Amino acid sequence: MIWLTRGRFVEQRNGHRPIDTSVAHPARRYNYWLGGKDHFAADRESGDLLAAAFPTARIAALENRDFLRRSVRRLAEAGVRQFLDIGTGLPVPDNTHEIAQRIAPESRVMYVDNDPIVMAHARALTVGTPQGRTGYLEADLREPQAILHNPEVRAVLDFNQPVALLLVAVLHFIHDDELARSIVQQLLDALPSGSHLVASNLTMDYAGPEQIARHEEMYASGRSDARARTREEFGSFFAGLDLLEPGIVAVSDWHPDRPADQRPTAGEVAINGAVGRTI
Ligand SMILES: C[S@@+](CC[C@H](N)C(=O)[O-])C[C@H]1O[C@@H](n2cnc3c(N)ncnc32)[C@H](O)[C@@H]1O
User: Fold this and answer.
1) 114 CA → ligand 1 middle, Å
2) Which residues surround ligand 1 with Cβ inside 6 Å?
């Protein structure tokens, strides 16, 4: 299905995929933690289970989203005009295109997510400024070439101009390190120099032994679907890029807009974030 209206595209690949409400899905669970309304019993159950094991899960979700907002704002202020936001999530106040187009109305933003429920809300993600362009594609990060060669992606983004690639809180759903690195590399290889990678990933770097053991047990049993990565493992996604200041830090500490005593600790947040620039 393709919707095409002035300045915006919405496409669903492979026909209509039904929304399976019986299985928890990251987009809806994340929406539950963010205080949204787009979730079902299975998502709430999974969210509550994880939050019981990690009581700061909701804080982590909010801080991660704030990192996305701040990084998009800073990049837009620095002149970046194109964004490829893969693992978009459900619409929230201040989606990527709203932040970028507020600063530069001509900004172009392409969203990609593999959850059919995000597709169902895509309209909210694709109403942008008349000067800019926004699009939504239902596709899987595991198929980077399909994303890169999709005609609608090419219609929204000009790959001869710098693009900020957003992989925020999505890489930890690709558990295999080599596969995740290869995906990131394939995407970056398609972008010209002066492009950016914005990414975040669950980490146990700041956790105590008890929390680490709890995470390992839940991950091994499949009750947690996010692969925690060390600073070094996460840093390998930025190999060959110039890491912007302050480098790899807990997302709440990346150009924070609140003093340290008003922010959660890195241990409470448990998500590392960084922004790198292609050379
Ligand atoms: C935790 S949410 C993060 C949303 C947003 N990036 C943010 O940081 O606020 C993760 C999103 O990634 C999407 N996702 C997970 N695996 C994916 C995949 N293989 N391909 C595309 N999207 C994926 C989920 O559907 C969900 O919307």
Assistant:
1) 8
2) 26-27, 30, 64-65, 68, 86-89, 113-115, 118, 140-142, 168-170, 173
Q: Quick check: 9 and 3 in contact, CB under 8 A?
A: yes
Cis peptide before 246 (omega within 30 of 0): yes
Other beta carbons within 10 angstroms of residue 212's beta carbon come to 13
Residue 4 pLDDT level (bands cut at 50, 70, 90): very low
DSSP string, 229-246: --HHHHHGGGTTSEEPTT
Which of 26, 141, 147 is CA-nearest to residue 89?
26
Cβ proximity of 170 and 44 under 8 Å: no
> Cα(226)–Cα(47) distance, rounded to whole angstroms?
13
| Tokens representing residue 109 in the block | 């933003």
pTM for the full predicted model: 0.94
* 261 Cα–ligand 1 center, Å: 30
Does position 50 have pLDDT exceeding 70, yes or no? yes
